Amino acid sequence: MTTTKLLSSLFLVLAVLFAQVGVVAAAPLTQDATPITGTVQSIITETDTNGVTTVLVTILDNEAATRTVRLSVDTAVTLGLVTLNQTTQQPVVNETQVGQAVEIDPTTVIPDQTPTEGTVHPIAWLLAKFFGEDPSVVEGYHEDGFGFGVIAQSLWMSQNVGGDASLATQILEAKQSGDYSNIVLSDGTTLTLPDGTVPSNWGQLKKALLDKKNNLGVVVSGQGNPENSTDPLLTQQHGNGKDKENKGKGKDKNKNHP
Fold first, then answer.
1. What is the pLDDT along the chain (258 residues), one digit of tens a residue?
2. Phi, psi of 205 (to 5 degrees)
3. Would you give the DSSP letter of residue 252?
4. 91 and 82 in contact (C-beta within 8 Å)?
5. pTM for this one?
6. How deeply is 98 buried, as exposed, middle or buried, from its count of CB atoms within 10 A (0-12, 13-18, 19+)?
7. Euclidean distance between CA atoms 28 and 72, whole angstroms
8. In sequence order, what E strands does the chain have?
């Protein structure tokens, strides 16, 4: 009888221990299952050397943080981010989803390969190619904490007044500090609004220097033209910007196309 009670007690203890281990093991899975939500900033299709196509989706979450995830074509189709060409069955980006809310199951996200020093973020590369800048400079802005949407806006602003990445750097630094009185154009004059006053906030700067189509979406889709803007300050005659040797914030990563 004593032996029976002892075995029963032992089984009970083991059952409790296994239950506790099961709860601990399940905890990370519950956390990983939290949906990825935000507003779609860009959608890009990529095909690797093996011919496998995936979809890169950049979203802006509720904390104003930018995040890029990689999805299979099937998952992207289900979410409405891409459609399939009826003839080739190749994915086509659904541009109407840019700016729309999305909820992504984290278990459908494809892990990226470990990044190497010779690669840059695909959005950084696209922005650099579009504006004729060094990809490492754009990557440097992102590493400094700026989202790609804001980076695109700063590059548009710089382009619209005849500047380059050195002017975009000043604009981003002004946004970070809140002081817009020290943005100097290539001709040595201080950047001012059309009425001659110095901008006091980011909203004023965007209103004065950006056209409605000056955004990240048109860069990614290839529909924009940085040399064709209706911005009111384009009537001002400025040079081609400061020496491009001073681009960015002193970052020289020698990065190449991913």
1. 455 554 455 455 445 444 444 433 334 433 456 888 999 999 999 887 777 889 999 998 877 788 888 899 999 999 999 999 988 888 999 999 999 999 999 889 887 654 444 567 888 888 888 888 888 888 899 888 888 888 989 998 888 888 777 889 999 999 999 999 888 888 888 888 888 888 889 988 888 888 877 878 777 766 555 444 333 333 333 333 333 333 344 344 344 434
2. -65, -45
3. -
4. yes
5. 0.46
6. buried
7. 24
8. 36-47, 53-60, 66-72, 82-84, 91-93, 101-104
Tokens representing 222? 């290839």
**For residues 253 and 246, what is the distance between their CA atoms, to the nearest angstrom?**
14
Cα 224 to chain centroid, rounded: 18
> Two tokens at 147?
């989202």
In contact, 251 and 137? CB cutoff 8 Å: yes
DSSP codes joined into one string, 148-173 = HHHHHHHHHHHHHTT--HHHHHHHHH
CA–CA separation, 163 and 157 (whole Å): 8
Terminal alpha carbon distance of the chain: 72
- State whether residue 208 is helix, strand or coil: helix
Reduced to 3 states (helix: H, G, I; strand: E, B; else coil), residue 190 is strand
Tokens of 121: 């973020």
Give 190's strand partners.
184
